[in-house]
What does this fold into?
Amino acid sequence: MNEKDFIFSKSKDLQLSGIKNFPVDFTNSKQFSVIEVPPKELILGKEFFGLFEVSTTTGDFVITFNNEMEAKYIVYASKNRKNKIQIPGDLHELRVTVESYEKYLDKILQEIRKEYEARFHNGKNFTLVSNEIFKKLNLTRL
It folds into this structure.
């Protein structure tokens, strides 16, 4: 098996096992506010004077947040390509939701790493391979 075959095989296995959907599968919040964004994939920009910018992948400015967790939440939720994103009204619940999702993604990465290193002992292309698998699954880890 080469790395291309591994990417295809592992992506398919993960899809069949059922990838959880953010934010639905990670929040218990009952109160939300709605933020309108373009129905495009969004990316997290740099911190600038305590503000976190979110923009489209083409570089178009979308919105800024005072809190990194809010910005991450919007970026993760934008993977669903909806123009209205429900965001928990409680900052603690928002933080718990994002942290829970990131732990889930880290668990997937650990699983990929374990299988990758078992098959390819030098492991020099793990980052490229894991990024390609995440891309196929429409996942991003910030």
In short: The chain has one domain: 3-136. The CA atoms of residues 33 and 132 lie 33 Å apart. The helical segments are 3-17, 68-77, 91-119, 126-136. The beta strands are 32-36, 42-48, 51-56, 61-65, 84-88.
